[in-house]
Amino acid sequence: MVSRAVLVTVLLGACRQQRNPEPGIAGVANAAMVDSRDPARVAAAAVRSAFPPGWRFSAGTSATFAEHAMVVSMSKYASEAGVEILKAGGNAVDAAVATGFALAVTYPTAGNIGGGGFMTIRMADGRTATLDYREVAPLAATRNMYVGPDGKLTNKSTVGYLASGVPGSVAGMAEALRTYGTMPLAKVMVPAIRMAEDGFVTDTNGRGNGQCNRNIAQFEGKELFCPGGSALKGGTLLRQPDLARTLRLIAKDGPKAFYKGEIADSLVADEQRGGGIITKEDLARYQAVWRTPIRSTYRGYSLITMPPSSSGGIVISETLNILENFAPLPPAGSAGYTHLLAEAYRRSFTDRNQKLGDPKFVKVPLDELTDKRYARSLAAQIDRSHASKTPAFTAGSEGDHTTHYSVVDANGNAVATTTTLNGGYGSGVWIRGGGFFMNNEMDDFAAQPGTPNMYGLVQGESNAVQPGKRMLSAMSPTIVLDPKGQLLLVTGAAGGPTIITATLEIILNVVEHHMTLADAMKAPRLHHQALPDQLDYEPSGLTAAVQDSLKAMGHKLGTRGLATANSIMRVSGGLHGVGEPRSGGTAVGY
Ligand code: DON
Fold first, then answer.
1. What's the rounded Cα separation, in Å, for the pair 65 and 43?
2. How far apart are CA 45 and CA 174, in angstroms?
3. Helix (H) or strand (E) holding 494
């Protein structure tokens, strides 16, 4: 199954790595070289990556192997829901929609029907598509709706009724299914409805499905998610009868139940009670939009990724185009590599923060930003031994809960989906009778262009609030093809702007550093978003010597937790699936 071209690339990569004098963490062989059903042979064939001493994960561990098909998501139940549909004869899109609805039940911190997302599809016959079901600003939204009378930003873009954009998830999932699926909505929603109705057992750590954050505690959802004022205990059977009813209505009547029917009535009645501005007209006008995928290349590999209203595909393509000018890249984990990544990110994020927004409202220079010649000119500005400075204006504001899932079916159809409420449990608002949380995606707009927002970041006019506009996202569902044009990798992440850098680094770990998927997911991650002018790494993710070198080059260093990804890679004899090792993603296949 593995093409000669891949083997040659892998072996050449191995030689390059061995010649490179600077020590790093890259692996020098790929699990794709051996039959991956046999972990012992994989381990013997792959020269193990060496992670920094003290790093939380070991290199050389195995992935979940499946001969036919795989779903990887943040919830075991949602991955199982996808596999249930695959085994019943559904394709990857049927399974992705089943997984998406199941996440709304079993991972309500981010899985949703009250939020939005992006889906990248590559069918085995070569068709590709990207679907934008991002929320839009309500028609009554105004540019300064989050600025208080004192001229200061309020917290209304993050908590409560004014924080929500018009949800896109139901329209998006139904549209993906209608166009590329093979099963009716009622069938793919069976597992989600069952789990809402009969209940499911919450994680022992409560993560993702039983928290009681300060937002929830102010609104209706508190009775279900914060009984007696505290979080659900792990191991609780959580039944959601209101949500089950809502899902049944959608299964029966399709998206019109949500956008025009009974659910719309509950949603708007709740908005009116709580001082929100989403109207029946907003809901009736909502549409998911098919976009032309961004197709870019990196050293012979092809990427299919998300165009605006997400910034993810442009920034990933621009960064890889810059890095392509440095051949070979220094080993992963080395100071030289970290510096190059930081300088490339600095440039592509500067473009992101200044130039991108909803293409219906702003002219996005997509062709220029993804052009190889433009990248060459940016690469020429990079000094290999000194950090540059980010120009004075830029940056992006993000929340802290989103979720990515990847699906490949037995025919090789692939789907990468990222969906979000933005913050954990979104705005905290839980629709009475509807049984679901609303997003706080309005905070992804530049709430006050040109001045620091509540996170101290500054964003551009191109992403200012306007009625009917989609707020700029970082979500980056991405599919990578090998040099023969065959499916190689399905990936993406959650984590605000770190979505972009984590997704890109997983891709680089596989195609440039020839790591196994398990190592590619476990390797320490890096992040730079232009402003604040700081290179972030995960605690213990860089050795002390590398940190010293980077400081000597002029980088300001910081630490943070970096992103949550779920990935699938095609290997000899089947698929490898790896759920996010940092926070418990689950791969299920057969
Ligand atoms: O669309 C975006 O870029 C953000 N709303 C994503 C937020 C996010 O990833 C939070 N994650 N854990």
1. 14
2. 44
3. strand 493-494
Give how far the C-alpha of residue 94 lies from the chain's centroid of Cα atoms, to the nearest Å. Answer: 20
Span 436-456, pLDDT tens digits:
999 999 999 988 766 655 444
370 noted as active-site residue: no
> The tokens of 41 are what?
């042979």
Give 26-70 pLDDT, tens digit per residue. 443 343 444 454 444 444 445 578 899 999 999 999 999 999 999
pTM of the model: 0.92
Cα 444 to averaged position of ligand 1 atoms, centre (Å): 8
Q: How far is the CA of 473 from the centre of ligand 1 (A)?
A: 7
Confidence band of 211 (pLDDT split at 50, 70, 90): confident
- Shortest-distance Cα residue to atom 5 of ligand 1: 422
Q: Which residue(s) pair with 489 in the sheet?
A: 480, 569
Q: Which residues touch 145 (CB under 8 Å, ≥6 apart)?
A: 156, 162, 465
DSSP-assigned beta bridge partners for residue 494? 564
Instruction: Tokens for 440, please give them.
Output: 């706080």
Q: What SS3 state is found at 151? A: coil
Active-site residue, selected from the candidate residues 402, 403, 498, 564: 402
Residues 6+ apart with CB under 8 A from 21: none
Closest by CA position to 381, among listed 423, 404, 347, 413: 347
Structure-model confidence comparison of residues 49 and 358, the more confident one:
358
The token pair that represents 141 in the structure block: 């939204």
